[in-house]
From TrEMBL:
Keyword line: Coiled coil
Highest taxon above the source species: Eukaryota
Pfam families: Hydrolase (PF00702)
GO molecular function ontology, one term from the record: phosphatase activity
Protein name as annotated: HAD-like protein
Residue ranges the record marks as coiled coil: 65-92
Record-linked InterPro entries: HAD-like_sf, HAD-SF_hydro_IA, HAD_sf, PGP-like_dom2
Organism field: Aspergillus nanangensis
Amino acid sequence: MSPVQALIFDFAHVLCSWHPPPNAHVPPQLLRSIMSSDIWHNYERGRHTQAECYAKVAERFPVSAEDMARTLQQARETLQIHEDTLAFLQQVKEESGGGLRVYGMTNTPHPEQNVMQSIRQQCPGLFDHIYISGNVGMRKPELCFYKYVLEDVGLPADATVFVDDRLENVLAAQSQGMNGVVFRDLPELRRQMRNLLEDSGSRGRHFLAANAMKMDSVTNSGETIRDNFAQLLILELMQDRSLVHLEPGERTWNYFIGSPKLTTETFPDDMDTTSIALSTLPMETDLVSSVIDEMATLINEDGVCMTYFDPTRPRIDPVVCVNILTLFAQHNREQEVSRTFDWVLDILLNRAYLAGTRYYQSPDIFLYFLTRLWRTSRGRDSHRQLTRPLTTRMRERIGAAGDAASLAARIISCKALGILNPGDLDTLQGMQCEDGSWPLGPSKVPILRWKEKKKKQRGLRILPAY
């Protein structure tokens, strides 16, 4: 893809808007029908004079030429220029340091072009040119109009971004290779423009630095959950201790930082967080060995590793098992948890992860941590056993729906396995927020429905399923 060098903007309902009053001489619904007719389209192409257009409309529709003239005059009087959008465009152009051109492209009859010019005068220097249908004899979404504009600006299609409020117009632009944005509102436009014009990786790293040690989990009701688990994942991926805050355990680790929330008053250390911590942070060998010794004793009747350092909470989860296996593999002790590995492999082979697991909703997260195990066990039997089915299952996930965290996990896994996945990367980049972050996604605990009887309200709340 070529770097974006030009923005091409529609005017009506993007940079300006007008709304005939309810008591207009031509009712709004009828006016919409008239402006969708071949008569009006030819007027926009410059094939009719204003008088000819109004006369032809009067012959076909139950309105007079005089009523058309009065109604459109009333519409002109309601014209509103979207100054905030124009100011944003001006800012983007100035920030480009001369590397970005801005054009207008509008379906406007020749007699109405003064309106476009008045908008242009409000922002001197913003528009390099405005292409008006009544002047060039073509209108959107005719392909010839887009081809004409592209040839005139002298840029490859993929170096341009076309913005319009009508999907059919954007689709036509995209069919010619242009980048397309369907305009909804200014905040969404700002976000999409940043994603198209700026490097997503740099923006993401800037967000991390600006929010160092503040990136805690949040419930959908807005309550902050400070946890070691998320912090350890950030640390492992970014290799930057300054980004995170941790509350280490003396030997084993707890999910929560500080007092537990939305669960029991006391909460045991868990093997999931501990496995990530011991496999990510530098630790004394004797300490790690002693923790692994203890983990090896906490198994269920099937020989599968449990989740907590508390046998009174006999919970199991495939992702937790994978993370435990990774720690054991790091220290060449996989054979001690071979039955856990066999179960995880069965889950992979039979796609039992597709609906999520007890603590992890996304199938992509299961495959991400399994890829982490695959990398750690390189050169061993477990690595060879995982390679083919894991590669197959990852290919199956390409293009599947998912939140930002799921897509990121999928992309990282595909890269590790040598699988090309540009489509999901494009999707993830397109989801980036204006500040460089990505939208919040589910935490490692499921979202459960609840009913608060006292307030007689329904809601959603994240509750640990421990």
